[in-house]
Design brief:
mainly beta
């Protein structure tokens, strides 16, 4: 079967790409000549056909005219006339016109972004990434000047809680699930990236968002192209990933198919020092933990879109993710400098995710549906020995079914545009967990719950030009949200509420290239399905992660005022208010030697600051991307017997330098770094960290191969340290991720030739 499939694909590739007459057009330096007109004639000057050269300088005719005459024309080169009977002309070298004045050079800085009417910052992705080490879609985000990578997350500078969306719509996938998908998606499938400080309501997301728009390939004839890729990593362990993607397209439809698999081996170290007081006696507790995580994953994606009649279209997206996650944890615990406990902790986690997204668009009408089916099965075995031997076993399962249906439209009314729509959402989640210590059930960590959520969102928006230079986009969303939880036959309403979400974006064009933009957004964040349960996940016998059934959702209000200069530079002010903010905080139990990483709500967590973005092109070979933000953070709240009211000045800096190392621009170097200043999180202090990386990319002529060699976290300084001496807290926790590693990414692209035809060719003046 595999052999038959290979033969089929080979024949398909040959059929699509075969041309009876073909050639390559270059200049004297060997560079391809793009968009040169190529005219095919019979020897008696009878016109047969015409086309233009593609981005590689190639052309082809599916004609059987022998002998024939080829005429090649370009405004910058002398016309060439070639007679031949051979199917392949080989390489044709054009001579520059003598009228071209080599000593005269006109140059200007290209505008790498423009501000759209809906407030989006639209970046020129091709310009930003043409010499950058980009091997997947997530790599593209790191090249965008106004986007910072913070750990494994991506944030728009001057915001927090940025959401990544696809094709103008939020998916039901979690942020981690979506990032897994994007990490195995070819960058060639991306058409554009839009940066929203305030996303339009019809996008299904509130506040800051990064909209990744996938390309919709259209070709005159059936086209088949694709790529093979692999990546080799050497950190604490060696591992490898790989994949393949294909694209089929013609005039009305395209179909992208991808498959990725890989085994990932990562290492983590955790050192916890705690002065833990139990019954008026303080103990010096030290726990050193190392973790080896093995992950084997498969991912399958399919994206089909078709143009229908009456300017309508239909898109169907499917993704399957299968993960086998098996971490092994070893811990040594000392109490009052005496060996106390050694533990071994093993997990076996299997999960799968099916995601289906369908959308039909007719004019300004959009009707879509989004569904996911997710299942996680987890088993844990932790064995402790030495002074008090014990064995813990736990079993957990989670099944999620989510459904989303939306209808949107917009209409021109007078001088403005009215947009409106309705979104309906429903989810059902089953959570089960039990834990035994030495075969005895731990009753307070045993649960079986079913959580149901449903919401209906209705929005109305208005956009209108204000004078000659202003543009206003305002919307109001009304949401009804209901969440219920069922346990042991008892039903309880978690939340049932109505909420209004106002949104505003105002853009003012001061002069060409200078824009002032004001945005205001509101949002509400709900706890995850698992965190609302009394879950207890033991990392070692002393330290565990806990859920909180009393956890409340929190609101976010974001205000940004940005000044955009020369379609490149941004400087802005921002304010972010988070009443009832929730996060995890360290808590030592007062009656036993046990500490938890517990979810709690604050009174508020607020930030006020200034930000700046500066992409600079020094010359043809060197460019720099610089971004920074400085803010004052204010946290206030209390939990158990701990109360805090604190503020801190903090911020972050990101710097990326790109160097083109040779004249053909096939070899480039990137050196980048990021620094986070010390910060706070409630009663905790977060130490600063530094992250540095270097990348070398080689793209040989022809464009089929791409090699990227990377060194990440060169100085091993990307370490997360939190600590507190805010009574009764007295501890420090250091987490060292396996972030220093070297990698080699290799990609080979094949196919992709398409015949470019002139839509209307005036032939009456052609020939000799």
């Amino acid at each position: 079967m595999r052999s038959i499939l290979c033969i089929f694909l080979s024949l398909l590739s040959f059929t699509v790409q075969a041309h009876r007459i073909k050639g390559l057009v270059v200049d004297k330096s060997g560079s391809p000549v793009v968009a040169a007109a190529v005219i095919l004639q019979k020897v008696d000057s009878t016109f047969v056909g015409a086309t233009v050269t593609n981005e590689k300088g190639e052309f082809g005719f599916d004609k059987d005219t022998v002998p024939y005459c080829i005429i090649i024309q370009h405004i910058s080169y002398k016309t060439q006339r070639i007679s031949s009977s051979e199917a392949s002309l080989g390489t044709v070298v054009l001579e520059e016109r003598t009228e071209v004045l080599n000593e005269v050079t006109v140059s200007a800085k290209a505008a790498i972004l423009k501000v759209k009417e809906n407030g989006a910052l639209l970046y020129d992705i091709k310009e930003l990434t043409k010499t950058s080490p980009v091997s997947n879609v997530l790599d593209i985000l790191q090249e965008i000047p106004s986007v910072q990578r913070v750990g494994d997350d991506y944030e728009i500078v001057g915001t927090a809680g940025t959401t990544i969306i696809l094709n103008g719509r939020k998916t039901n996938m979690t942020p981690d699930q979506l990032k897994e998908l994007l990490s195995t998606t070819s960058p060639s499938q991306v058409k554009s990236v839009e940066i929203f400080y305030n996303a339009p309501s019809q996008y299904g997301v509130k506040g800051a968002a990064i909209n990744i728009v996938m390309s919709r390939q259209r070709t005159d004839n059936l086209q088949f192209k694709g790529g093979l890729r692999t990546a080799l990593y050497q950190g604490f362990y060696y591992y490898q990933t790989g994949g393949v993607d294909f694209t089929l397209s013609n005039k009305r439809w395209s179909w992208d198919i991808g498959y990725a698999l890989g085994s990932t081996n990562r290492h983590y170290d955790l050192t916890l020092n705690s002065n833990h007081t139990v019954e008026d006696q303080t103990h010096d507790v030290k726990v050193e933990t190392s973790q080896h995580a093995e992950i084997f994953a498969h991912r399958v994606t399919s994206n089909f879109n078709i143009d229908l009649k009456n300017k309508s279209s239909f898109n169907l997206f499917y993704s399957l993710q299968l993960n086998d996650y098996k971490p092994k944890i070893h811990s040594d615990m000392n109490v009052d400098r005496e060996p106390m406990l050694e533990s071994r902790n093993k997990y076996s986690n299997d999960k799968y995710l099916h995601s289906i997204i369908a959308e039909y668009q007719n004019g300004l009408w959009k009707i879509g549906a989004d569904a996911i089916f997710y299942k996680l099965t987890s088993d844990q075995n932790m064995y402790s020995e030495n002074q008090r031997s014990a064995e813990l076993n736990s079993e957990s399962t989670q099944e999620i079914r989510k459904f989303d249906l939306y209808v949107h439209n917009s209409s021109k009314i007078g001088a403005g545009t009215l947009s409106y729509g309705v979104d309906g959402f429903y989810s059902m989640t089953d959570n089960k967990h039990l834990t035994t210590w030495d075969r005895a059930l731990e009753e307070d960590a045993r649960f079986s719950t079913r959580q149901k959520e449903k919401s209906v969102d209705g929005f109305v928006g208005w956009s209108q030009k204000i004078g000659e230079k202003g543009m206003l986009n305002a919307s109001l969303m009304l949401q009804y949200f209901n969440a219920e939880i069922e346990q042991k036959g008892d039903k309880q309403t978690l939340w049932e509420e109505w909420f209004l979400f106002p949104s505003l974006t105002y853009r003012h064009n001061l002069k060409p290239g200078q824009v002032l933009q004001l945005t205001f957004a509101s949002n509400k964040s709900y706890p995850s399905y698992w965190d609302l349960n009394p879950s207890k996940n033991y990392i070692n016998p002393y330290y565990l992660e806990e859920g909180n059934p009393q956890l409340r959702p929190y609101e976010t209000y974001q205000l940004n005022l940005n000044y955009i200069l020369n379609n490149r530079y941004i400087i802005g002010l921002f304010a972010e208010l988070n009443p009832d903010y929730s996060t995890r905080l360290f808590y030592p139990y007062p009656d036993k030697l046990l500490a938890s990483n517990r979810l709690i709500n604050f009174d508020y967590s607020n930030r006020f600051g200034i930000m700046g973005v500066a992409p600079v092109k020094w010359n043809k070979s060197i460019n720099t991307k610089f971004s920074a933000n400085v803010y004052i953070k204010k946290d206030k709240g209390s939990f158990e017997d701990i109360a805090f009211n604190r503020d801190r000045i903090s911020g972050s800096i990101s710097l990326t330098n790109n160097f083109i190392l040779n004249k053909p621009q096939t070899l480039s170097l990137q050196v980048s770094g990021a620094y986070q200043m010390p910060d706070i999180r409630g009663a905790l202090d977060l130490e600063d960290w530094l992250y540095t990386s270097v990348s070398l990319m080689w793209q040989p002529k022809g464009g089929h191969w791409n090699f990227i060699l990377k060194g990440e976290d060169l100085f091993n300084t990307y370490n997360m340290v939190e600590k507190s001496k805010h009574a009764p807290l007295d501890y420090s926790l250091k987490t060292i991720k396996d972030s220093r590693f070297a990698s080699l990414s290799i990609r080979y692209s094949f196919g992709g030739y398409k015949e470019k035809r002139l839509k209307q060719v005036d032939t009456h003046r052609m020939g000799f």
